[in-house]
Design goal:
The chain contains two helices and 33 strands. The chain is mostly beta strands and 457 residues long. The chain folds into three domains: 118 residues, no CATH class; 144 residues, no CATH class; 151 residues, Tick-borne Encephalitis virus Glycoprotein, domain 1. Strands 7, 8, 11, 12, 13, 26, 27, 28 and 31 form a nine-stranded antiparallel beta sheet that branches. Strands 15, 16, 17, 18, 19, 21 and 22 form a seven-stranded antiparallel beta sheet that branches. A five-stranded mixed beta sheet has the order 20-23-24-14-25, with no helix packed on it. Strand 17 and strand 18 form a beta hairpin. Helix 1 runs antiparallel to helix 2. 29% of the residues are buried.
Length: 457
Amino acid sequence: MMRSLYSGVAGLQIHQTRMDVIGNNIANVNTVGYKAQRAAFSELFYQTTQTASGPNAETGAGGQNAKQIGLGASVAQISINITGEGGSQSTGNGLDLKINGDTFFVIEKGGAKYYTKAGNFTTDGYGNLVTGSGGHVMGYVAERDPDTGDYVMQTDELRPIQIYGSKYSTTPPSQTTEANMTGNINSEDEKFTSKGVGFATSDLTVYDSLGNLYTIQMRIEQDAGSTTGYKMYPAKIFKGTEEVTDMSVSFGGDAATTVTGVDGNTYNGVALTFNGTTGKLEDTSPTSVSIIINGADGNPAPAFQIPINFDFSKITTYGGETGLESLSGDYENLGAGKGVGTMISVGIQTDGKIAASYSNGDTVYIGQIAVAQFQNAAGLEKVGDNLFSSTRNSGEANVMDISAAGEDMSSGVVEMSNVDLATEFTDMIVTQRGFQANSRVITTSDTMIEELLNLKR
């Protein structure tokens, strides 16, 4: 039987394999994170009918080359264009991610670790970040320190990234410890031209240690017959829109004094004296006092154990418009307190950190997406669902945060496939012609055998 028949068969087989690879590439031209494959051929072993011989000086005979007949070709390798980066496709979904570099997302599925370039992620019923096939996206998660209340990133091992878990749904409140009042009092303002007429400042809002919001109504009145003397006191306290009658609020400390308000009631307030020339507080006047909120028993309310330091050193008595503003926090907004924070949004930064924003102004890093790097990424093995598994030829995964790899990731973007349709269609034509040529070898060999059989006629 003619050897060319088998060479032709081998050629048909390898070109069919190459067409299978091309077809798969074209089928996945729009698959997120797909890496194109390429089939490469190598010649098959040879039948040697005569070995090579060297020249013989004694006989004067020259050397002869070996005589070998090839027996076809085989598929040498099906390689993956693993380092070729696909184009970027904007999705507008903040959970979609694209790695700008050669590292891979780490996925856990069925207890095994896999790796992918496809960052079209979503969340499951437990708030975990997952792939479309249900694999968990792995990384580092934050846990709340029971002593400080701060979130600390746990980098000792990889864990499934949870975004909308109950432990991240809220942030704790903090009590208001500082407050201040700023503005100006014009002694000639009609509010202060007669005895007993007071001026209500803007209300002061404060938080207790449980995150409840209270509003304190502050008042300031001019001393009778004076243009520089005033008294200030907290008059009422509200929780929401309702006045709280089982709690009382007063000024405390050495500067506190008993004052009578315009309503005839007695309050714990403070006396202020301004310099008629500079318009600022006299050195003998206090610049701050503590606000104390008491419960029905007259003792500091359980959620208000810490007095609020109230600073009014910035008040002036210039000839401008009268207007006072009470604000929680000091002049740098420290100690303002806050209520319970409810998560309102989540964003993923270029370094893979997941930042959660809360209704009370908190921003907390609740996790960080990890990436894996390989010594030979081309040695990874495809397992379907846009996943790769490590092999002995790829080496073990070196897991890290993406900044350590000198790369970054983009949010709201996914990596498209790196299939080049022009190349695939060109390879398809070449493969078709190769298949056709090998089929001609078979038919021609068959014709030669037919001629040989006809010799006996």
